[in-house]
Amino acid sequence: MFVINKKGENGILKGINLEIQEGEKISIVGKNGVGKSTFANALCHFVEASGEILYRGQSIVNDSISERAAKIGYIMQNPNLMISQNIVSDEVASGLRLRGFDEGVISEKVEEILQVCGLYPFRNWPISSLSYGQKKRVTIASILILEPEILILDEPTAAQDLKAYREIMDFLDQLNHRLHLTMIMITHDMYLITEYTDRTLVFADGKIVADESPFEILENENFVKMGNLSQPSLYQLARKADISPISLTKAFINFQNQERLKHE
């Protein structure tokens, strides 16, 4: 679906070669300043990058920011930095209005996307009265209405308690399955990558130094060191008990999901 080939050695990113398939859930990890956000900004064309970017076999290097946004949506860490309107429905509609869509079409699409995102009951609410997690959903809805096939999320669970964390990640998981969206998440949350993503890219010094499943990344001491990552406590417990960290983590996630289902 998506191929990035950045050959240049100038700037922050160096020699990035990557292929992304439709519907993948990918996490990007690594310490601050190694190129994670620059990579995301380059995909959205917020910054210039040399090399080739192919989308469904076609080059999108010369696309404008607006053209790129029709394919790739970017969700910032802080929803307050994305919101420009006072009312929920107006915020969700703003992207289509900027593109000159007919108001009848806008109204229909806004209603549909608000239903998908669980925001329809709040459509006429002032955004200032929403919780942080609800504001996050509003920003996601305002991007989804443009019908991108790829979502890039910067620290999707930052500044949220466990309940809000679960709600936003389960919501994103549902979008992935329901809309077949490809999701790329920049995060420092090692638990998130094991429970909610299938593939992890470790960035270091502007390069992708590892591209494996999140479980394999966290089990490999070299990858952990290169990415300045923190192994979850379950990995440390497994080693002390002389059992597989991957098996223990998967068993714990399955148990936790089953317990949650009992109380839903």
From TrEMBL:
Alphabetical keyword list: ATP-binding, Cell membrane, Membrane, Nucleotide-binding, Translocase, Transport
Cross-referenced InterPro entries: AAA+_ATPase, ABC_transporter-like_ATP-bd, ABC_transporter-like_CS, ABC_transpr_CbiO/EcfA_su, ECF_ABC_transporter_ATP-bd, P-loop_NTPase
Listed SUPFAM superfamilies: P-loop containing nucleoside triphosphate hydrolases (SSF52540)
Primary subcellular site in the record, as a coarse category: membrane
GO cellular component: ATP-binding cassette (ABC) transporter complex
Family as reported in the entry's similarity comment: Belongs to the ABC transporter superfamily.
PANTHER family listed in its UniProt record: ABC TRANSPORTER ATP-BINDING PROTEIN BC_2655-RELATED, HEAVY METAL TRANSPORTER
Purpose: ATP-binding (A) component of a common energy-coupling factor (ECF) ABC-transporter complex. Unlike classic ABC transporters this ECF transporter provides the energy necessary to transport a number of different substrates. In this organism these probably include biotin, thiamine precursor, niacin, pantothenic acid, queuosine precursor, riboflavin and thiamine. Uptake of niacin or riboflavin into proteosomes containing EcfA1A2T and Niax or RibU has been demonstrated. Uptake requires hydrolyzable Mg-ATP and is substrate-specific; NiaX-containing proteosomes did not transport riboflavin.
Protein name as catalogued: ABC transporter domain-containing protein
